[in-house]
């Protein structure tokens, strides 16, 4: 990440609650048809390692490396999770997505999930992903697009949450509407248009259990994660304002007709 970029979410428990739910199936299904058992894969921004460990299980004859930013204790959780699952063909390291610590042409697949929206210079990150991929290799990335999120019932408070989130994320140096920009960034990074495959993936929360989990996570994240301190720092919210946003999330979660869908842009780029 750029020195001037701040990771909007951080690794507070409320954030990891969401990240630990992610699997290769629900977060990287678009990539799975391309994988072969003997591939070597780099997972940038691996977080608690749930997707990373899934990749390692799929690539049983290959190897997976998970990378996170320096000074992040989330890798302790990733290593513990991999050990719990008995996954041994996996390594976790620290490094910078804008200057990856690997030689050219190291990996068959370079993957990033919800990373480019935070790094400050997504084109440089894609250039680095391309550099460390082998000729003929695959770059795969999936990014949310916050302006494309839809929900029911219509709630002014959730509209205000999204407006505030967009302001905070951009003030931190990121681009929260990354999903719609992936192909543009990829072309700027040197990938020919004909080497790109684009798709859209969704997450949808509507059962009572899903609503309780999603709304509770965002209510807690709003007041307790890096988002809260960044929002106050940049003058987007006061502490009282953040509490109001958290209460809106709880109200949405308690509504029996509540429904929330996120869209993600997905990119496969051939090297």
Walkthrough of the structure:
With 271 residues, this protein is α/β, with parallel strands linked by helices. 39% of the residues lie in helices and 22% in strands. Strands 1, 2, 3, 4, 5, 6, 7 and 8 form an eight-stranded mixed β-sheet that branches. Helix 3 links the parallel strand 1 and strand 2. Helix 6 crosses helix 10. It is globular, with a radius of gyration of 18 Å.
Tell me what portion of residues adopts beta-strand conformation.
15-25%
**What's the count of strands?**
8
Shape: globular
Question: How many angstroms does the end-to-end distance come to?
Answer: 23 Å
Order of helices and strands: HHEHEHEEHEEHHEHHHE
The whole-angstrom Rg is 18 Å
Poorly predicted spans: none
User: Main beta sheet: strand number and arrangement?
Assistant: 8 strands, mixed
What's the tally of helices?
Answer: 10
- Helicity range of the residues? 25-40%
Brief characterization of the structure:
The protein is built from ten helices and eight strands. 39% of the residues lie in helices and 22% in strands. The mean pLDDT is 93.
Summarize the SSE layout with pairings.
Blueprint: H1 13-19, H2 24-27, E1 40-44, H3 50-58, E2 63-68, H4 74-85, E3 90-94, E4 107-113, H5 122-132, E5 133-144, E6 150-152, H6 156-171, H7 182-188, E7 196-205, H8 208-224, H9 226-233, H10 239-254, E8 259-270
Parallel strand pairs: 1-2, 1-4, 2-3, 4-5
Antiparallel strand pairs: 5-8, 6-8, 7-8
Helix pairs in contact: 1-8, 6-10, 8-9, 8-10
What keywords describe this structure?
alpha/beta; 271 residues; single chain; 8 strands; eight-stranded mixed sheet
